[in-house]
Amino acid sequence: MGEVGTRATGAAKGAGIAGLLLAIALPACAPKPPPPPPKPPSVDLDAALAALYGQSGAQGMVVTVVQGDQVTVRGFGRVSAASPAPPDGATLVRLESISKLFASDLLAHLVVAGRAKLSDALPQAPAPMRRKPKDPPAPITLVELATHTSGLPRTAPIDPTWDAAKSAAARAAWLARTSQRDPPGVGALYSNVGFDLLGDRLTALDGRPYAEALRARVTGPLAMADTTPSPSGAQCARLLEPDSSRPPKPCIDQTGFAASGGLYSTGNDVGRWLKDQLAARPDPARQVSQATYVQRGALKAAIGLDHAGPAQAIGLAWIEEAPTATHPRILEKTGGGDGFLTYVVIDPARRVGVFFAIDKVGRGVLTPLTQATNDLVGALGRAAG
Q1: 177 with 270: CB under 8 angstroms?
Q2: 347 is in which domain, residue-wise?
Q3: Element (DSSP H or E) covering residue 295
Q4: Do β-strands 60-67 and 352-358 pair in parallel, antiparallel, or remain unpaired?
C-alpha cells in the first residue's frame, strides 16, 4: 500500500508540474479591449447656420466659420429691403466693437517689434492743464486700456464725424481735464474711449496714422482689402443695409474712432483673419494678443463684459469664458451699434471660430444668439475630435 501510494503521489506531482509547465508555455487569454468611445455626432453646418439666422430675426446675416484651415462663408436673407439678393462674403458690414480686437492685434505686433510695452503708460498732460496739479490721476497703462481696467468711463464727448487728428486732440484735452475717474487696475468697466486713446497712442508709437499702421502690420499682410475705417464708394455700395427700424446710418469715414468701433469689413476678410488667429504655426504676436491678463476674481467689479456669457478673465479686448457643458474654454467679443450686431468667438485649442454680423439691433437679440454660437463652436470642436 505504501509503495502504491508513493507512486500515485509521485504521478500526481508529475501531472501537476506538467500542467504548470503547460500553463506557462501557453499564453493567457488577453482580456477583450474596451469598445472605442462613441464618435461625436457630425454637425450639419448649413442647417446650423440657417437655424442661427432664423433665430436672429434679421433681414440679412453674414456668417464666417473657420475649422482648422477650412473657411466657410454664408449669407442669409437679403442685402436690403429693396434688393432680393442675399449677402455673401463680399458684402460690407460694420464690425462695431470687434474693431477693438484689431487694435489689440496692432498693439501685440508693436510689442513683438519692440516698439511698445504693455506696461507703457499714457503720457501725462502738462501740469497747467490739470485742475489739481499737485494731485494728478494715476497713470494708465496700455494693458489697462486694452483690458477695460483703465478706470475711464464708457464714452467721452467726441463727435463721431470728426477725423482722426481732430478726435485725438479732443480726447487728449478731455483726458487732461478729467480728474473724476476710478483708479486704474481696480475694476473693469467697458470703455470705448479707452480703446480710442489706445489707438491714439499706437499711432504715436508706430509713427503712422492708425489706419496706415493697421494696414501695414495686420490687415495688409492678410490681404484684407475691405477692412478699413474709410470705405470707398464702391465698397459702400456693397454695405448690408443697417436695421431699418433705427435712424439711417450712412456709409461714412469712421477714422475718428477706428480703434474702438469704426472698422468696416466683409465675411471673406474676417475669414482670412480668423484663419490666421487659429493657425497651427506658433506666432509671437498671437500669443500676446490671445493671452488673458486680468482674472475677474481679482477685480472689485466688472461691468459691461457679460453680454455673451459670464466673463472669467479679460485679454486684450478678448473676453474669456470658462468651459461649460456645451462649450470649451472660449475667447469672444461682441459688437453693436449703427444698426448692426456682431460677434466673434474662437476655440483656439481645437482651431474653431465663428463670426456673424446681422442688420438687427434690439434687446433680447444678442445674448441668445451669442450663446447659440458658443454652443455651435463647442459642437464643431467635438466633431473635429
Answers
A1: no
A2: 45-384
A3: strand 292-295
A4: antiparallel
Say how far apart CA 329 and CA 189 lie, in whole Å.
23
Task: Give ∠ CA 267-351-107 in degrees, rounded to 5.
Answer: 70
Residue 288 placed within a domain: yes
Residue 39 included in any domain: no
- Residues, the chain, total? 385
Provide mean pLDDT across the span 179-201.
Answer: 92
% pLDDT > 90, the chain: 76
The closest alpha carbon to 275, from 369, 354, 385, 384, belongs to 354
Q: Residue 46 contacts by C-beta under 8 Å, 6 or more apart in sequence?
A: 74
In one letter, which amino acid is 248?
A: P
User: How confident is the prediction for the chain on average, in pLDDT?
Assistant: 89
Query: Is there a domain that residue 224 lies in?
Result: yes
Q: Three-state DSSP class for 225?
A: coil
CB 259 within 8 A of CB 103: yes
User: 75 with 91: CB under 8 angstroms?
Assistant: yes
* Model confidence pLDDT, tens digit, residues 240-269: 999 988 888 899 999 999 999 999 999 999
Q: Would you list the DSSP string of 264-278?
A: EEEHHHHHHHHHHHT
Encode burial over 278-311: b for 16+ CB neighbours within 10 A, e otherwise: beeeeeebbebbbebbbebeebeebeebebbbeb
What is the arithmetic mean of pLDDT over 343-354? 98
